[in-house]
Design brief:
The complex is a heterodimer of chains A (about 250) and B (about 325). With about 250 residues, chain A is an alpha/beta fold. Chain A is built from ten helices and ten strands. In chain A, the strands form two sheets. A six-stranded mixed β-sheet of chain A has the order 6-7-8-3-9-10, sandwiched between helices. Chain A has a four-stranded antiparallel β-sheet with strand order 2-1-4-5, covered by helices on one side. By secondary structure, chain B is mostly helical. A two-stranded antiparallel sheet of chain B has the order 1-2. The radius of gyration of chain B is 19 Å and the shape is globular. Classes of the chains: A alpha/beta (about 250), B mainly alpha (about 325).
Chain lengths: ~250, ~325
């Protein structure tokens, strides 16, 4: 059974239909992509999957558990993490504090044990910090741990968003345009990083991306959107050859 | 080494390690400890008020500075504590110390009643609701028999500790000093813990915090309740010191003064908030010489501070 199952998902804002009966699935351990022209509904779909939007109909399940309509923090706790299209770091906090935020839903000590400085609480703090450092190290920015997150270079901010999402110990990670604004060199590093996420940590990856070269390079399966509808779904070669895709999407690229 | 410590973030590197905070802190503590031995009753009285504001401002700082919730009715929780303790000792003969846990529970309940439905609102709506809540509590206190109506509650018992009765202003000065130190310790502990960080995450980017697995409503509610509990404890001790309380001690003006202390000093971090609280208590006394011009001079002084130090006198230098 697939890790992520989306069935007949519908979303509308007032009278505007944003998503029409979308169905697709992502297998465990896969790297898949969502592509489509701007305004096709890709980010809206991500927002439905992560609980930021409430779909009008249909169902979403993660590892067999229904997650449709749950609030975002519950969905993250169930193992679905995300990054944002426009980087959303806690800019005024340190890089390490940002990475540590992912561990919140994996830890439990509250106000009282912090006031009493319970040994178990001290140990948990240590675990959170270690996990934060581990993921900073994984994405390669551990040397910046104590800097202000907003002061990082653009590429490093993207890496930090990844580290933060990974620190929540997800089964599936959704990346919303991870290559946006990166130069060619950084894009190569990103391809490498995305593969390492899957190969070294076993986390399944679903990404939205406009950079066709990158998408074709990393994805095992591609789902194509246009005007809120799924128009194709398959391996890169098949999608590339699909006449509807060429017409709707690649055709516009000249 | 010094440079290294300085570049360390406050929340990750314990704040106690920073000499720029430790030295003034120790000096202030030393002065605070011996002050009543040298000062006259008037100065001790003003200093006691300053310590009361330190406690209240530290409590409100959890709500405003940590969690980023604009609360315009904070004095209501101060009132809940003062009236709970006052009524229980004056009307029902409770021991003062037993009234503190009761007041804490009462503040928690009040915090949940007002917070649970409203903390989903974004900041400006929340400000209006808390403003209304503050007025409701004051008007209820004005109109109930058990709270003594507009004239208030009199004959509140002085607390005893190990057979020693707190009577003079010096006694209450030290009681408030202990409470202020305790509050600062509690704030510092929580600030550097998982929940403390969660408040900052919610304050800086609510959506990103939710997306990373933080229940924003629970986090805000906890900040709100913790602030409420601190204000209620301050209220208990305040009632015991005054022996008489009336609704006029818990007006919107009071809420504003506490908020002013938080913003003036630099919200978010403890040293700034303590400084702001002391200023709020001292400014009216220092400016007594200005006579009828005092409100004007105060306003000009505050405007100048906000113009030249928009982040507060001792701002939160994160990272």
């Amino acid at each position: 059974m697939a890790l992520l199952e989306v069935r007949d998902l519908r979303l509308s804002f007032g009278g505007l239909k944003v998503l029409h009966d979308i169905s697709f699935s992502v297998e465990k351990g896969a790297i898949n992509s969502l592509i489509g022209p701007n305004g096709a509904g890709k980010t809206s779909l991500f927002n439905c999957l992560t609980g930021f939007y409430k779909p009008k109909g249909g169902s979403i399940s993660l590892g067999g558990r229904p997650i449709t309509g749950l609030p975002p923090h519950r969905i993250t706790a169930l193992g679905l993490a995300r990054t944002f299209q426009n980087i959303r770091l806690f800019k005024e906090m340190t890089v390490l504090e940002n990475a540590m935020s992912g561990q919140h839903c994996r830890s439990r000590h509250g106000i009282m044990s912090a006031i009493l400085h319970l040994p178990a609480q001290r140990r948990e703090e240590e675990t959170i910090r270690t996990a934060g450092m581990r993921w900073l190290d994984f994405v390669g920015i551990e040397q910046h741990a104590h800097r202000r997150a907003g002061g990082l270079s653009y590429g490093d901010q993207r890496r930090l968003e990844l580290a933060r999402a990974l620190a929540s110990a997800p089964e599936l990670i959704l990346l919303d345009e991870p290559a946006a604004g990166l130069n060619e060199r950084e894009k190569l590093d990103l391809v490498d990083l995305i593969r390492r996420i899957r190969d070294e940590t076993g986390v399944t990856v679903l990404l939205i991306e406009h950079d066709m070269g990158l998408v074709m390079q990393v994805s095992e399966k591609i789902v194509v959107f246009d005007y809120g509808q799924k128009i194709a779904d398959g391996p890169p070669e098949a999608v590339r050859a699909d006449p509807r895709v060429i017409e709707a999407y690649l055709g516009t690229e000249e | 080494m010094i440079d290294e410590v300085r570049t360390m973030p406050t929340a990750v590197q314990p704040q106690l390690m920073r000499w720029s905070v430790v030295l003034p802190g120790l000096a202030a503590l030393a002065v605070a400890l011996v002050l009543p031995q040298f000062a006259n009753a008037y100065v001790t009285e003003v200093a006691t008020t300053a310590l009361l504001y330190v406690v209240l401002c530290l409590g409100l700082n959890i709500v405003v500075g940590y969690a980023g919730l604009l609360d315009l009715g904070y004095a209501a929780f101060f009132a809940v504590g003062a009236y709970t303790s006052g009524i229980l000792t004056a009307e029902f003969g409770f021991n003062f110390w037993l009234t503190i846990p009761v007041a804490m529970v009462a503040a928690c309940v009040a915090g949940i009643i007002i917070g649970a439905p409203t903390l989903r609102l974004r900041s400006d709506y929340l400000a209006i609701v808390t403003l209304g809540f503050g007025e409701i509590v004051r008007i209820i206190a004005r109109n109930l028999d058990i709270t003594g109506g507009a004239s208030g509650l009199i004959g509140i018992e002085r607390p005893e500790i190990f057979g020693f009765k707190l009577m003079q202003v010096q006694h209450f000065y030290y009681a408030f000093l202990v409470l202020a130190l305790l509050t600062a310790f509690v704030c510092l502990s929580v600030e550097r813990s998982r929940m403390g960080r969660a408040w900052f995450y919610v304050r800086y980017d609510e959506d990103a915090a939710a997306g990373i697995g933080i229940n924003r409503v629970t986090a805000k509610l906890q900040a709100y309740m913790m602030g409420a509990v601190i204000a209620s404890v301050a209220g208990c001790l305040y009632a015991a010191k005054m022996t008489a309380i009336s609704p006029e001690s818990f007006t919107f003006n009071q809420s504003l003064l506490i908020l002013l202390g938080v913003v003036l000093g630099g919200m978010g971090r403890i040293p700034g908030v303590v400084l702001g609280a002391v200023l709020v208590a001292l400014l009216p006394e220092v400016l007594r010489g200005a006579g009828t011009y005092r409100p004007l001079v105060t306003a000009v002084a505050l405007l100048a501070i906000m113009l030249f130090r928009p982040n507060g006198l001792w701002p939160d230098k994160r990272v």
